[in-house]
């Protein structure tokens, strides 16, 4: 076995290139490189005089003869290999020119993001796939503002959407029968449409006396995340308001975090909102996918993707328009 007495630390630009059908471009590492024969996203080392995006554009041109035209940062992750400590800067690329050709004698293919059909996949990349492939839209329930209006909005929204989304059941003001009625409607709708339901941890505290078991993964409030509660239950993600909480979300192996509010919103009157630049700053160091929340609607998804958001979470805007 080769030994590497001095391990370099390298920054790597990693391009997740999407085609119009939602598949992504995979490359197979050629002979002569560490982990030859392993599948990876195209990319390579960031040179000292380059930004990550410049490195990504250069690598895609050199390896596959395509020109990346538009994309945005996703998140960063570090991995300790025998040959190097790598910091992977994942970017989505959603617009490019040209059709891929093998310029470095490597195999490549278009395949789904979760890519169960490709093997082996690089050890740092494989565990990321369920996180990358998770839904990019999260709709929050709001039955407490009126059962019928929320039920209709969710039903309309779900009938218009063709891709998987998350539905977070979050009802702080409901209790007793009203809470059960809202839960049963939301749960039934998720079952019927096959969409993934999440249960807000505050809401679970009010609901648990009525249920035999946790019906779906928890979405933790920041307070529950910080207090370390619910370690024994399945937790998918958490709401966070600062970078310390993002670190804790990563340490707790959560699948995502939700950070906001990005724009002013009626639920937080008088607060200006983080804005996209501050969102980007925080999301970049997160090491897990981060949803943006706060005054956002479906038309904000491009801005969100340009500023490091995995996707957007919507309260009252989901199902409108
Ligand atoms: N491109 C890419 N690299 C990855 C991924 N996952 C992952 O761990 N890496 C690691 O990131 C590093 C990329 O370095 P590389 O050797 O491919 O870079 P390069 O194309 O600049 O190579 P070169 O040394 O021939 O100039 C490798 O250690 C590789 O194992 C991935 O999904 N895509």
UniProtKB/TrEMBL annotation:
InterPro entries recorded: Aldolase_TIM, MutT-like, Nudix_hydrolase, NUDIX_hydrolase-like_dom_sf, NUDIX_hydrolase_CS, NUDIX_hydrolase_dom, ThiamineP_synth_sf, ThiamineP_synth_TenI
EC number annotated for this UniProt entry: 3.6.1.55
Record's catalysed reaction(s): 8-oxo-dGTP + H2O = 8-oxo-dGMP + diphosphate + H(+); 8-oxo-GTP + H2O = 8-oxo-GMP + diphosphate + H(+)
Family statement: Belongs to the Nudix hydrolase family.
NCBIfam families: PRK08999.1
PANTHER family on file: 8-OXO-DGTP DIPHOSPHATASE (PTHR47707), NUDIX HYDROLASE FAMILY PROTEIN (PTHR47707:SF1)
Protein name as annotated: 8-oxo-dGTP diphosphatase
Source organism per UniProt: Limnobacter profundi
